[in-house]
Amino acid sequence: MLENPRSPRVRAVAKLAKRNAREETGLFLLEGPQPVREALEYRPDAIVDLFATPSALERHGDIRTLLTDAAVEVDFVTEAVLAAMADTVTPQGLLAVARQSPTSIREVFDGSPRLVAICEEVRDPGNLGTIIRAADAAGADAVVLTGRTVDPHNPKVVRSTTGSLFHLPYAVGASLPDAVERAHAAGMTVIAADVKGDDLLVARAEGALTGPTAWVFGNEARGLDDDGLALADRALRLPIFGRAESLNLATAASVCLYESAFAQRT
């Protein structure tokens, strides 16, 4: 059992909360039972190390079964060691180190996708994680993160995805013009989510969402700039029926992705 919170191994794991350490190692943190569970079920090959307190592993019998099936070994640690490793204030007894596994943007669009989310300069980790989770739930084929978007391996992003990072392909580092060009080449309509766009209900009635679609979501505060909007085939906005000034980016993105999912399945 690991008992020393100041040991070199513990410190190396804790450093993965920082972007420079993740870039140097190609590794990232999974904290809590849910992301660990999803990694064990869908990408056990990505797990490098798995740490658990004895009491936490005792509470999660399904994770013990997944560990056996995946032949992944556990390093038992004390609560103090887990707290030193974790990014969260109150870790839940399970933490893993995993390999980053982004796909290439070429592979995303070579697969004839029908629904893709493109994130341009999304800066809030919680928003990005929620968009990835929503894309997964809506049956999207992939998520593309431009080079100006927050790191998807940021611990807050990972927690917000609740394991969806292991369910669908994600590409990182592309430029928005490159992503849009590839989407067009794949026969997709590129739609920008923007408050200055046309009413989404009108587009729905026109049948504009039934075909292969790449949604572009911009920065939380500024949205997409004029150059970004010009790349899209169309801009759409969600109607506001109540008195709210606007919708949170992740909420709006979830609605847009589901609108496409509904239309494509009708």
How would you describe the overall organization of this protein?
With 266 residues, the chain is α/β, with parallel strands linked by helices. The protein is built from 13 helices and ten strands. It has helices at 8-14, 19-25, 33-42, 54-59, 61-70, 79-85, 105-110, 125-137, 155-161, 176-185, 200-206, 226-231, 249-265; strands at residues 27-31, 47-52, 75-76, 94-99, 115-119, 142-146, 170-174, 189-199, 213-217, 234-237. It has a six-stranded parallel beta sheet, sandwiched between helices. A four-stranded mixed beta sheet has the order 1-4-2-3. Helix 9 (155-161) links the parallel strand 6 (142-146) and strand 7. Helix 1 crosses helix 6 and helix 8 (125-137) runs parallel beside helix 13. The longest helix is centred in the C-terminal third of the chain and has 17 residues, at 249-265. The chain is elongated, with a radius of gyration of 20 Å.
Concise overview:
The chain is an alpha/beta fold and 266 residues long.
What are its keywords?
266 residues; alpha/beta; 6-stranded parallel sheet; 13 helices; 20% strand
Contiguous low-pLDDT stretches (5 residues minimum) are: none
Number of strands: 10
- The strand line-up of the biggest sheet is 7-6-5-9-8-10
Helix content: 40-55%
Give the count of helical stretches: 13
Secondary-structure class: alpha/beta
Helix-strand string = HHEHEHHEHEHEHEHEHEHEHEH
Distance between the termini: 54 Å
Largest sheet: 6 strands, parallel
Mean pLDDT: 96
Which outline best applies? elongated
